[in-house]
# Entry
Amino acid sequence: MHDESQNVDAKTDYNDQLIVSQVVSGHKDLFRLLVRQHEKAVFAMGISFFRNTDDASDFTQEVFLKAYKSLSRFEGRSRFSTWLYKIAYNTALNEVNRRKEYQSLAEEDSNKLVNSTETPERITLRNAAKKAVRTAIDELPERFRICVDLFYFYDRSYQEIEVITGIPVNTIKSHVFRSKMILREKLKSLADM
# Structure
């Protein structure tokens, strides 16, 4: 199964590269295929930073506009999604620096539906656990939250996070490790439930 997901990722990367080359060579209308492929992920990053759909929508449009204008500079040395996430990350950081209000992606789970066969007690416990995790993640230093978000919620490798953020790989590994230790300590009481 792991090999199957790698094949899907490789196919997506190849398709992205092919579309980019076609857009750059004049088939500009094909850019919509890249938007369709990556729009949800960019929007999710917008939600994680700005916490509302209006700002996330504006952010998504801005990111794709920047990507479109810069597409001829995409050299294919990384995955297109990594290149796009770097644009998104830098755009979000610039806006956050203006606003000073980074929030973790862990806060956003609106797409997940609760199993309707669960008891009210289980739903209450699950919601309490989610709230505790969100609170603990929100209390992490910003540099840790960013690494945790990209690693766990965007499923980016350490090397991709380095490309996106400019933070060295060993520092990213340290931030993720230290975040896990901090979260484990903060959530220790939750495990006793």
